[in-house]
Amino acid sequence: MQRASDAEIVRRASGEGSAILTCDLDFGDIMAASRERHPSVIIFRLENETPGNVNERLAQVLKESSPALLRGSIIIVEDTRHRVRLLPL
User: Fold this and answer.
1) Rounded to the nearest 10 degrees, what angle do helices 6-16 and 26-34 cross at?
2) Which residues, 6 or more positions from 64, have their beta carbon under 8 angstroms from its beta carbon?
3) Would you say residue 1 lies in a domain?
4) Is 20 helix (H, G, I), strand (E, B) or coil?
5) Beta-bridge mates of residue 76
6) Considering the domain boundaries, does residue 49 fall inside one?
7) What is the chain's pLDDT, residue by residue, as a tens digit (89 residues)?
8) Which among 2, 4, 36, 83 has the fewest CB atoms less than 10 Å away?
9) In terms of Cα–Cα distance, which of 12, 51, 39 is closest to 59?
10) Structural domain count, the chain
C-alpha cells in the first residue's frame, strides 16, 4: 500500500474494517472532511518512532481506547498521552 494514494488507503481500510496507523497528518484531515465514521485513524506524533516504541504506545492506546476505535475515531498518539476525537468531526 505504500504506493497507493491516500484516498485508496482510506477506501481499502474502510472496506476491510481496518484502522489506519500513520505518522501522516493528512489522514486525519481526510477523515475530518469526509464526515464519515470509518476508518479510524491512529496518528503517531512521537519523538522516538522506532518500531519498539511505536508498538509500546500502540499497545497502550489499544488497551485504553478500543471502544473509540470500533466506533470510529482519530487518535493522536504522543510520547506521554493520546487524544481521542470521535468521528465524524
Assistant:
1) 60
2) 82
3) no
4) strand
5) 43, 83
6) yes
7) 789 999 999 999 999 999 999 999 999 999 999 999 999 999 999 999 999 999 999 999 999 999 999 999 999 999 999 999 999 98
8) 2
9) 51
10) 1
| Domain assignment of residue 39, given as a range | 6-86
Cα R_g (the chain), whole angstroms? 12
Domain membership of residue 16 (yes or no) is yes
For residue 11, is it within any domain? yes
Output the pTM of the full model.
Answer: 0.94
Q: Are 22 and 41 in contact (CB under 8 A)?
A: yes
| Contact yes or no for 7/39 (Cβ under 8 A) | no
Are 28 and 77 a contacting pair, CB within 8 Å?
no
Q: In residues, how long is the chain?
A: 89
List the grid coordinates of 3. Answer: 504506493
Helix (H) and strand (E) counts in the chain: 3, 4
Lookup: cell for 67 = 471502544
